[in-house]
Amino acid sequence: MAATPASRPDGPRPVAAVASESSPDLDDLLLRTARGDDQAFAALYDALGGAVLGLARRLVRNPSRAEEITQEVFLQVWRTAARFDPDRGRAKTWVLVLAHRRAVDAIRHDQAASDREDAYDWVGGPDHDVVSEEAIVNLEHQQVRRCMDGLTDLQRESVTLAFYGGYSYPEVAELLDANLATVKTRMRDGLIRLRDCMGVSA
Amino acid sequence: MTVDLHSLIGPYALGALDTDERSAFEAHLATCPTCAEEVDGFVATSVRLAEAAATTPPPTLREQILAAAATTPQERPAVIPLRRRRGLRSMLPGLVAAAAVLVAAAGVTGYVLEYNRTQDFQAEQTRVEQIMTAPDATTSDKTLDGGATMRLVHSPSLDAALLSVSGLPELDGQDYQLWTLRDGEASSVGVMSASDMIYVGNVGDADRLALTVEPKGGSESPTTAPVASMAV
Q1: How many CB atoms lie within 10 A of CB B16?
Q2: What percent of chain B has pLDDT over 70?
Q3: Measured between alpha carbons, how far is B209 from B142 in angstroms, rounded to an integer?
Q4: What rounded mean pLDDT belongs to chain B?
Q5: What's the pLDDT at B14?
Q6: B229 within 8 A of B186, measured Cβ to Cβ
Q7: Interface of A with B in 22-41 (CB under 8 A)
Q8: Which of A27, A179, B123, B208 could form a disulfide with A91, with the two C-beta atoms 3.0–4.6 Å apart?
Q9: Is B17 near chain A, with CB under 8 Å?
Q10: Touching B: A residues 95-114, CB under 8 Å
Q11: Other beta carbons within 10 Å of A99
Q12: Tens digits of residue pLDDT in A49-58
């Protein structure tokens, strides 16, 4: 690192220096973004752009569409940063939940725009196995992959199809030929195991 | 049978609810502190799932996003509406929007999101805060016929003031316009809406501020009798 954070005065800072900080305070970056600080916004993008793009790619399965979504997400972050309330949640959560919703909305929108029959075939087709497998295989994060391995098949499929596949829980139930109550329970149980395995604290 | 909202906690944290269900679940959350705690843990878990999907974005994407942001206005926090601000800006550099601090301090109600170039906003916010926090700032209030209120915050050391109005009758096809009066000479400060705030620079030796109703966009000099005035 070229400079220590303590040695840097407030105000505009080189983006590269900000990005190279091991753990930028994302809440602070988002609060500064809300005040129009474009350096803070750039640093926020550097910290979360990869996750937003990766999540969008996983969900929409189309690289250029995923880039569009990433751009939409960050412009929404830029526009509405003033709504972020650090007392009610973390910046990282705010951005990534937004990204997930936006990508799922895009899937639904694109799906609605396509032929109804095709859409139905797509939902009911064999594609879900591919989604589920690829999502697991491609996970870069070692710990998440290990924790995923600790789930039952039905828990893992329920969690994966919903989160990385963008399916609603009734769609997941249909894909897995399980009833709604079972799927809801498996999702919750799966999240409990993942949370405990990853040592997540709220 | 009613849906057991709590059973939606897993689908909620995984983003697998439709909009209606999500709203219903969030309403449930507001009344259930223990659920909220569990949801926080689940959402934090799904954030980890999102991070695990991270990839390296192409450099062009970064450039596109930063360039797009540079030309995208931001929503502002609690401010008072200030209309046609950008057009006025060229001829009335003293015009400001209010910062939240001023809204609170001045007791002016109204919470409106206005879209603006943020650099402008920041500069103005600074000026507003300077006046509000100036040691010599004095505040005077006036209640007008019909219940509308005016408040003037004036700092002689900064040679500047903020005038806010609230609850004036809404105009159709006309604007309120604020003037400074010096020895009977009026010079325009800017046009205002029925609930608005304006920055008054170069207060100098002005002895009064006067508000008139003018054709839309304002006049060169007052064309009507003041609806309100205040001593500086």
Answers
A1: 28
A2: 77
A3: 12
A4: 76
A5: 97
A6: no
A7: 34-36, 38, 41
A8: A27
A9: yes
A10: 96-97, 99-101, 104
A11: 28
A12: 999 999 999 9
